[in-house]
Backbone:
């Protein structure tokens, strides 16, 4: 059974549909990457899966269960965590408070979970009392990912985790994502640094105008001449 | 020399007024931070708290300071009730509709107070307090207790906001509503708690104001403008800014009486508020306005 299977999704914000038949499937523990031009509806697809939009048509299954109309809180409880593209930390809360909010729904000692996140992002341990709003873009992205990992999800959804980062930090982030995957967590991410992202992906989707254009394994998409010309900048 | 003494004396009054304004402004700021509207009924919530405290004393015969917890419970319950009956139903409409509804709610609360307690003036205690003299400065014992009570209430709030799960969730929601939703923070519970706390703080301001002077049905409404000035000056949506805002407005209002008629005190708050809105609308602490 697939971890996540979205079929023929239609929906969007008020007004016309943005998604026009997008589909997506991923197995547990995989890295799956969504690429595509600006405005293709990649972020919209992520929001739709996480229950932030009304889906007019189509179906989403998570571990075989219908979650098409589930709310974000239910998604979190089921083991799905989502990091939005922008504004993804609580700026006036400290790093540690941000992480604690990630596990708000749990009534237990959070220290083991904090340890897990600090082991993955040692920098956050050093800065745990600093307000997240005062940190650099790269550090904020770590806080955002750490916050999402606090529920120990089985599916982590990342919307452009490397946007605006320096090349060194981008490499760093992809390394972290592979470490997260090695923990057995499935990672579904939208990426602009398409080549690099596809090179670590098990599967990739090229989304254009709200629908699937190509889908294949990461290496196959990278090798696909058409995809390379149209979407990966030659 | 005489001027210095006057200045010191007025500063003491200013700090007392400032601590009362602070309690009101923190509530206004918190409510704005989480619900995104200016709560105009906040002054009358103070009045409700003050009167509930008064009746509690009249019924139980307990010492004066029991008015504080009793009023806080009363106003917190009132605030929650008003939210459940009125604001909650229109929360998804535009903020301006909420703002105007809260204006209507202000009138309703004031009328209810008049209906229950009548238009006459009450006092918590008829004892005349003998002021303490330090050199040329006089200190009214009640002023010390008012300041102390305000400090304790703010300290308790600070501990709540920084040490408890719900307190942190309140700050998180005020910071970033969308992310709070995505994180699984239960918005409705946080909103209810915001009303409870906002109401309790308003009652704190109302009771302390009543101890400083007397209880009238318009006491809260009359102080609403300086309370808003304090919240805006501190950066609306920033409860900690409201402390600084409250103190500055309180001091400015009292010290202004050195130069102008005391009846213009609210005008001083108004002028500061307008100036802040023109020069630095986000306030001292970068609020969300
Ligand atoms: N909150 C919103 N309300 C209305 N339309 C939106 C909103 N967010 C995005 N859109 C529109 O949806 C389309 C897809 O946007 P998005 O999913 O963010 O694209 P991508 O992430 O692929 O760059 C765009 O045309 C955008 O203008
Ligand atoms: Mg996007």
Residues:
């Amino acid at each position: 059974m697939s971890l996540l299977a979205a079929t023929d999704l239609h929906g969007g914000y008020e007004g016309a549909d943005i998604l026009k038949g997008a589909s997506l499937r991923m197995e547990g523990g995989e890295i799956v990457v969504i690429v595509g031009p600006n405005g293709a509806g990649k972020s919209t697809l992520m929001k739709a899966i996480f229950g932030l939009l009304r889906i007019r048509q189509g179906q989403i299954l998570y571990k075989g269960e219908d979650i098409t109309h589930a709310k974000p809180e239910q998604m979190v409880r089921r083991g799905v965590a989502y990091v939005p593209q922008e504004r993804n930390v609580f700026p006036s809360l400290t790093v540690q408070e941000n992480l604690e909010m990630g596990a708000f729904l749990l009534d237990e000692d959070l220290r083991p979970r904090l340890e897990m996140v600090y082991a993955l992002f040692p920098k956050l341990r050093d800065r745990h009392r600093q307000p997240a709003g005062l940190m650099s873009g790269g550090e904020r992205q770590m806080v955002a990912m750490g916050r999402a990992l606090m529920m120990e999800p089985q599916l982590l959804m990342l919307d452009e985790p490397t946007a605006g980062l320096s090349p060194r930090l981008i490499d760093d982030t992809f390394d972290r994502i592979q470490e997260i995957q090695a923990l057995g967590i499935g990672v579904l991410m939208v990426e602009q640094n398409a080549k690099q992202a596809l090179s670590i992906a098990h599967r990739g989707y090229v989304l254009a105008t709200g629908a699937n254009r190509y889908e294949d394994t990461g290496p196959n998409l990278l090798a696909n001449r058409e995809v390379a010309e149209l979407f990966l900048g030659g | 020399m005489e001027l210095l003494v006057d200045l010191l004396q007025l500063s003491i009054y200013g700090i007392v007024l400032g601590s009362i304004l602070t309690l009101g402004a923190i509530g206004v700021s918190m409510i704005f931070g989480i619900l995104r509207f200016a709560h105009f009924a906040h002054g009358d919530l103070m009045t409700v708290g003050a009167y509930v405290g008064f009746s509690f004393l009249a019924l139980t015969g307990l010492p004066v300071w029991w008015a504080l917890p009793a009023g806080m419970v009363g106003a917190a319950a009132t605030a929650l009730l008003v939210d459940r009956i009125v604001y909650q139903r229109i929360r998804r409409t535009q903020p301006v509709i909420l703002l105007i509804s809260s204006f209507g709610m202000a009138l309703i609360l004031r009328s209810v107070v008049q209906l229950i307690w009548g238009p006459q003036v009450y006092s918590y205690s008829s004892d005349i307090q003998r002021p303490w003299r330090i050199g040329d400065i006089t200190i009214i014992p009640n002023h010390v207790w008012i300041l102390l009570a305000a400090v304790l209430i703010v300290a308790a709030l600070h501990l709540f906001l920084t040490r408890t799960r719900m307190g942190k969730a309140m700050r998180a929601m005020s910071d970033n509503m969308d992310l709070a939703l995505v994180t699984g923070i239960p918005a409705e519970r946080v909103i209810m708690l915001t009303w409870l706390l906002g109401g309790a703080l308003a009652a704190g301001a109302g009771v302390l104001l009543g101890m400083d002077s007397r209880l009238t049905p318009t006491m809260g409404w009359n102080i609403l403008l300086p309370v808003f000035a304090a919240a805006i000056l501190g950066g609306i949506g920033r409860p900690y800014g409201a402390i600084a805002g409250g103190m500055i407005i309180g001091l400015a209002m009292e010290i202004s009486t050195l130069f102008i008629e005391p009846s213009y005190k609210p005008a001083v708050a108004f002028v500061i508020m307008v100036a802040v809105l023109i020069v630095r609308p986000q306030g001292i602490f970068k609020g969300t306005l």
User: Anything to note?
Assistant: The CA atoms of residues 173 and 180 of chain B lie 6 Å apart. DSSP finds eleven helices and two strands in chain B. Residues 2-117+137-279 of chain B form a domain with the ABC transporter involved in vitamin B12 uptake, BtuC fold (CATH 1.10.3470). Chain B has one domain: 2-117+137-279.
